[in-house]
């Protein structure tokens, strides 16, 4: 019998009884529990990206192109805010009942989204969906932490990280397929993005109700920290809105500055409330006295900046520079998924065998930083094999680092605070992802317009190119994007498909040059994370207890 299959038993209970709070489940029992948890995590992770490829189609159909960003922002805000609440609620009431409510909320939100008749309705319903989605991922990681030892944890969490990474990559592919379908069974294609969640959620709910029925749980007699939840919402919501909308409003506009100040005030109030609540706090501040938890959350935040920034920018590169459709761009990212799954499962076994987190953590963050540096050297005419090198490095880096960071953060946390701690990890990763996506896009569009104008002006000094631009059809296309002040309107890039190559090249080179700067900035952040991992993370051995 392996250590993973060993069972510590209360002598008063039958052998292998999972209701024993002191029992460790067998490998077969753990895998049974994971079958439902992975499906729940798949739903939550998929919905973070599946809408992105279809958003333009959805906005056109609902006549809300200018408000489309709120569809993403609403899900992000409610999912981020609810994550710590799920952790504390599950510590108090148990994982099963809270997980069931998360699935129910997510499913109800999905049905409402499929029935939306306006872009603002869809944004509200996405918020309801996010209330459920916030619990699907964090609770899955918490349950595995409950039923395994720290050393075994990496072995099983590797599967979750593979599901998380894979669903994040294939989300745009699925979204592109449904968005391009027109109608399916008499229903508008994009609505199936949400309807498909219903049967998947029903299966996940049936499995969860069955396999978590006798999950060991020792109730924590805490009251819920409503004041902390309110202060967190006041602090985080304005900052998330600024991260998503700041580029459109202007980073120094009155509304941006006002929301920024409100967010800071809310965060200060949150810290004061949490200090007063002590162990009953939504996010117990004493957790940050645990070195492994503090480092794990910090590294998650930094890596999420690079991860979500790259996942947001790479499809744009493939669609703009390579002329791919959203679905083709999603398929081109498959090397990342393959590398992610392979390395994730390998690292999980290494963690279970050796109990050493630091080597895998350092290697993973280093590999991901190398991937961002590869992307920072991409040109408009770079061959796909070169792009694939970066994609493989990215998948391998995420596969090695994500589960290692989560295992590190959980390794020294008391089981009574495991729900809050795991939720905190997901909370910081989600906020890091928001910052990363917003920062990459802000850098991209802030620089691209100027550089495109400069390159286009240079190109038009060439006689043949200037005559090409004066042809009626080409002049009509250019007039739609060239502003009277010499600037460039970047709201739509569809015209590039119809421009001759000499005229399209300045646009593509300007976009790609701006992307290079964004990737370099991301690499600088993950390099700092690498240095922290090398110098600050202890070379501890995970316990088998």
UniProtKB/TrEMBL annotation:
Q: How does it sit in the membrane?
A: Multi-pass membrane protein
Major facilitator superfamily (MFS) profile domain: from which residue to which, for each copy?
Answer: 33-541
Subcellular location(s): the record lists: Cell membrane
Biased composition (Basic and acidic residues) is annotated at 1-16
Using the UniProt annotation, give all residue ranges assigned to the region (Disordered): 1-23
Keywords, A to Z, come to: Cell membrane, Membrane, Transmembrane, Transmembrane helix, Transport
Transmembrane stretches, by residue range? 33-55, 67-86, 98-122, 128-147, 159-180, 192-212, 224-243, 249-273, 293-317, 329-348, 360-378, 384-402, 435-452, 511-534
Q: Which InterPro entries match?
A: EmrB-like (IPR004638), MFS (IPR011701), MFS_dom (IPR020846), MFS_trans_sf (IPR036259)
Name of this chain's protein: MFS transporter
Instruction: Recall the taxonomic lineage recorded for the source organism.
Output: Bacteria, Bacillati, Actinomycetota, Actinomycetes, Kitasatosporales
């Amino acid at each position: 019998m392996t250590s993973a299959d060993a069972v510590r038993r209360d002598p008063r209970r039958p052998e292998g009884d999972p209701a024993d709070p002191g029992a460790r489940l067998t490998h077969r029992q753990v895998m049974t529990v994971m079958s439902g948890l992975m499906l729940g995590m798949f739903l939550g992770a998929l919905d973070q990206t599946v809408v992105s490829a279809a958003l333009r189609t959805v906005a056109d159909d609902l006549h809300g192109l200018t408000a489309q960003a709120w569809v993403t922002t609403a899900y992000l805000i409610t999912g981020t805010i609810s994550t710590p609440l799920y952790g504390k609620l599950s510590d108090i009431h148990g994982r099963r009942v809270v997980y069931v409510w998360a699935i129910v909320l997510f499913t109800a939100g999905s049905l409402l989204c499929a029935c939306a008749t306006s872009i603002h309705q869809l944004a509200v319903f996405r918020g309801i969906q996010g209330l459920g989605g916030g619990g699907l991922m964090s609770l899955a990681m918490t349950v595995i932490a409950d039923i395994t030892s720290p050393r075994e944890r990496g072995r099983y969490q590797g599967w979750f990280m593979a599901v998380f990474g894979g669903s994040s990559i294939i989300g745009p592919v699925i979204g592109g397929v449904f968005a391009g379908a027109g109608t399916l069974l008499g229903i508008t294609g994009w609505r199936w993005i949400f309807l498909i969640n219903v049967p998947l959620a029903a299966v996940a709910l049936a499995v969860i109700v069955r396999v978590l029925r006798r999950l060991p749980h020792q109730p924590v007699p805490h009251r819920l920290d409503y004041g902390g939840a309110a202060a967190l919402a006041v602090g985080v919501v304005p900052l998330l809105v600024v991260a998503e909308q700041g580029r459109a409003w202007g980073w120094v506009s009155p509304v941006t500055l006002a929301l920024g100040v409100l967010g800071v005030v809310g965060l200060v109030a949150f810290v004061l409330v949490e200090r007063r609540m002590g162990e009953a706090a939504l996010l117990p501040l004493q957790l940050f006295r645990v070195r492994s938890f503090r480092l794990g959350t910090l590294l998650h935040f930094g890596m999420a900046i690079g991860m979500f920034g790259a996942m947001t920018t790479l499809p744009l590169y493939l669609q703009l520079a390579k002329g791919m459709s959203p679905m083709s761009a999603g398929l081109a990212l498959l090397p990342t998924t393959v590398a992610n799954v392979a390395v994730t499962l390998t690292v999980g076994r290494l963690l279970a065998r050796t109990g050493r987190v630091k080597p895998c953590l350092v290697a993973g963050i280093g590999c991901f930083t190398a991937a961002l540096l590869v992307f920072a050297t991409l040109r408009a005419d770079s061959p796909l094999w070169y792009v694939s090198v970066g994609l493989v490095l990215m998948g391998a880096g995420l596969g090695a680092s994500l589960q290692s960071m989560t295992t590190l953060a959980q390794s020294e946390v008391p089981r009574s605070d495991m729900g809050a701690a795991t939720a905190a990890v997901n909370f910081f990763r989600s906020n890091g992802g928001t910052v990363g996506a917003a920062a990459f896009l802000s850098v991209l569009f802030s620089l691209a317009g100027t550089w495109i104008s400069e390159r286009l002006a240079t190109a038009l000094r060439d006689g043949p190119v200037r005559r090409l631009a004066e042809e009626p059809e080409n002049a009509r296309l250019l007039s739609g994007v060239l502003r009277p002040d010499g600037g460039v309107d970047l709201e739509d890039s569809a015209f590039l498909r119809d421009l001759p190559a000499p005229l399209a090249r300045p646009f593509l080179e300007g976009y790609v040059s701006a992307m290079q700067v964004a990737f370099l900035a991301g690499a600088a952040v993950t390099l700092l994370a690498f240095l922290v991992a090398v110098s600050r993370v202890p070379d501890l051995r995970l316990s088998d207890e």
